[in-house]
Specification:
Length: 62
């Protein structure tokens, strides 16, 4: 059984996939807020919130 501890290629692939996934997720959160409120700071702040939530959830699950 291959694991990320034994094969850094798998770990790198998963890390890149998660990083690439965060870009459209942030856009999907930010654009409606930007057009709805017109406030770039608020849209940017809320677009960053899923990133921190997923980090908190992964930390808490350990």
């Amino acid at each position: 059984m291959a694991s990320a501890f034994n094969n850094t290629g798998i770990a790198t692939s998963v890390a890149m996939a998660v990083a690439i996934h965060n870009i459209p997720e942030g856009i999907a959160v930010a654009l409606p807020l930007l057009y709805g409120t017109g406030d770039r700071r608020k849209a940017f702040g809320w677009a960053r919130s899923p990133v921190w939530q997923s980090r908190w959830a992964s930390w808490w699950a350990c």
